[in-house]
Amino acid sequence: MALDIGAVREQFPALALTHNGVPRIYLDNPAGTQVPRTVLDRMMQALVEFNANMGGNFHTSRLATETSAEAHRAMADFFNASNEREVVFGANMTTLTFMMTRVLAGRFEAGDEIILTQMEHDGNASPWRIMAEERGLVVKRLDFDPTTYEIDVARLDEIITPRTKFAAINYSSNILGTINNVKAMCERYRAAGVLTYVDAVQFAPHGAIDVQELGCDFLVASAYKFYGPHQGILWGREELLSTLPAWKLRVVKDVPPGRYETGTQSLEGQAGTIGAIEYMQWVGRTMGAEFVPTKPGLSDRTRAVHAGLLAMAEYDRGLSRHLIDGLQRIGGLEIRGITNPERFQHRVPTVSVTKSDLDPAELATFLDQHGVYVWNGHSYGIDVIERLGLQDRGGVLRIGPTHYNTTAELDVALNLIEDFVKGRVRPD
Predict the structure, then answer these.
(1) 340: domain range?
(2) Numbers of helices and strands, H then E, in the chain
(3) What is the distance between the terminal CA atoms of the chain, rounded to a whole angstrom?
(4) Is the model's pLDDT at 63 over the cut of 70?
(5) Which of 18, 163, 168, 335 has the largest CB neighbor count within 10 A?
(6) Predicted confidence (pLDDT) at residue 425 exceeds the cutoff of 80
(7) What per-residue confidence (pLDDT) applies to 374?
(8) ω into residue 401 within 30 of 0, thus cis?
(9) What is the rounded average pLDDT of the residues 286-297?
């Protein structure tokens, strides 16, 4: 059953808004998606009906406490985690990752090695580099091929040594769109006794995540990238989260996930995250029948959520094809990512372009004047930008559709880009 794009778009109030008299076209989704009504309803309910701190012996506090517990259960199903104790909420992925550098640092000795991919978002690179500097660790890089925009996992056999103790893994690049073979990387790292930390922020809205299948040790995501509120989520193996050191207040019980959830949590953020999961369940149940996973042991919610995500991913590939074909027809633009349709299973619809005489900021400003929202620059994927030699050229223009976008919206953007690139217009 194909994705019912009309029914999908009806769920997102922001898609009905206009800009200078024309419909808004949100192609800035790699930096943050719009939210469906289920998210808005859940957040409003939390802020109106039980806006109280958690853990108290009164009605609104009990409701708030149960909402937080349900958010942990919902995300455990999203990740196919063993249980909700493996789910830690935080302000955002970067803050959680900096916390984990402190948690993990004591496991490493001077001279130990850590490996980062060259595709990392800075949120999964700088925290570990800072930790390495403080602990005297050696940082190695797993590079990508700048012609294919993919990583050769076999190169790990050359990089991993007996001193390798930790690896940060990019699931999907927020610049190139490449989906990396995380499972194969984790298999090699696990065989060498290396801890793995996966950044799934960009991948999460474009595919189903199964941490048990991946075999990683930690994985992070951000709800605002998969149609929810600004909320970071960390998954970690319970045996690790139970035994690693935690910097916490005396009054906090020394059990996960609470031992890592410092201070008062965002009740409305966790409620909104439930709403995002409910939206994906709705997509799976109404439009994802052919994508329901058959793997034994999955919960009903996991099956529905993963079916929804897989249905979205199938639709996304059509958007990738339409967008890349249109950019190639314009001519003169270099697409910084996979363009072979036979490899589209290995990319998300995030598409970055450059041109020798093109200022990405000027083009982004021009598109904004016509209600089309895109990003320009490095988008915190600075390691990728430097690897491609684009740091002094304004980075890239990044076009990021997601499953609520249409090919008609892409055509509007493509026509405007063609006009700009061919010199027919300039920003006001």
Answers:
(1) 5-35+313-421
(2) 14, 15
(3) 44
(4) yes
(5) 168
(6) no
(7) 98
(8) no
(9) 96
Percent of the chain clearing pLDDT 70 (strictly above): 99
User: Residues 382-388: contacts with CB within 8 Å, 24+ apart?
Assistant: 382/122, 383/116, 383/118, 383/119, 383/120, 383/122, 383/125, 384/118, 384/119, 384/173, 384/175, 384/176, 385/175, 387/118, 387/143, 387/144, 387/146, 388/146, 388/336
Question: Considering only CA atoms, which of 138, 309, 133 is closest in space to residue 209?
Answer: 309
Give the DSSP letter string of 211-258. HHHHT-SEEEEEGGGTTS-S-EEEEE-HHHHHHS-----TTS-SSTTG
Say what the pLDDT of residue 427 is. Answer: 66
The SS3 of residue 267 is: helix
**Per the domain annotation, does 303 fall within a domain?**
no
Report the distance separating Cα 47 and Cα 64, nearest Å.
10
Which residue type occupies 48? V
CA distance 269 to 90: 10
Query: Residues near 6 by Cβ (< 8 Å), separated by ≥ 6?
Result: none
> Tens of pLDDT along 4-46?
999 999 999 999 999 999 999 999 999 999 999 999 999 999 9
How open is the CA angle 169-201-239, to the nearest 5 degrees? 60
The whole-number pLDDT of residue 130 equals: 98
User: How many Å apart are CA 354 and CA 395, to the nearest integer?
Assistant: 8
pTM: 0.97
Give the up-direction half-sphere exposure of residue 398: CA atoms within 13 A in the CB hemisphere: 25
Domain count, the chain: 2
- Report d(CA 53, CA 68) in Å as an integer: 11
Among all chains, which residue has been given the structure tokens 């406490």? 65
Query: Is residue 199 helix, strand or coil?
Result: strand
Last residue of a domain, one of 235, 262, 280: 280
Domain harbouring 391, CATH code: 3.90.1150.10
The answer to whether residues 258 and 328 belong to one domain is no
Q: pLDDT tens-digit profile of 320-348?
A: 999 999 999 998 999 999 999 999 999 99
